[in-house]
Amino acid sequence: MHNRITIVENILSANDRIAAENNSLLDKEKVFSLNIMASPGAGKTSLIEHTIKLLSPEFRIAVIDGDIATSFDADRAAAAGASAVQINTGGDCHLDAVMIQNALQNIDLKDTDLLIVENVGNLICPASFQLGTHKNILIASIPEGDDKPYKYPSMYRGIQALVLNKMDLLPYITFDLARFYKGVEILNPGIITFPTSCHTKEGLEPWIEWIRQQLIKHYGSKC
Length: 223
Ligand code: MG
Ligand code: ZN
Description:
The chain is of the alpha/beta class. The chain is built from eight helices and seven strands. It has helices at residues 4-28, 44-55, 72-80, 97-104, 148-151, 153-157, 177-187, 204-219; strands at residues 32-38, 61-67, 83-88, 114-118, 135-141, 161-165, 192-195. The chain has a seven-stranded parallel β-sheet, sandwiched between helices. The structure holds magnesium ion (MG) and zinc ion.
C-alpha cells in the first residue's frame, strides 16, 4: 500500500543512493566539499565570496549555486575567483543529489580541491536532502533571532559546523546568545561554531583555518 509517508521515504532513499555516488566521485577526485545552507539573507553568498578570496591562493575552488531563479550568486562566486556552476531549480526550494550529480559533470574535478555548494535559502527541506558533500554547514545570523534552533531542529541536528553571521549587528538587535547556544547544544552537542561578520570580517580566520584543516585531514597536502 502506498501512503504519503512511503512515497516520501522512497524519494529520500533514492536521493541518498545518488548522494553516496556523488560522495565516492568527490573522494576519488580528492575534492573536499561543503553544503552551505541558511535562510535567505543570512549571508551565504557573502561568506562564500570571502572564503574564495581567502583560500583561492592555496586551493582551486569550484562553486555550485542553487537558486530558484537568477545567476547573481554564481556571478559573484566567479568574480571572487572560483569556477561557478548555476543550478536554477525552477521553483524547487532545495537542491537534491541528482541536481548535484548533473552539475558535477560541468566541473573539472581534477582541477578542483574544494567544492562549495550554496543551497537554496530555506531552513526546512534542505535538511532532508543529502547531496553527497563531506560536511553540512548552516549559516545562522543575528537578525533571524535566537529562537531558530528551537523552531528548525532538523536543520540544526543535521550539520557538522555552524556559522553565526552578522555578529556586528548584536548591539542593535535583541538576540540572547546564551539562549541560542543552549538550543544548539541540546540538538547538536559539541558542534563547532564560528561567530563571524562578513561586514567587519571578524571571525573569518578561524572558519578559513577549519576548512584548511579539513582539506588536509581528508586528502593530505595536494598542492
Ligand atoms: Mg546567495
Ligand atoms: Zn524544498
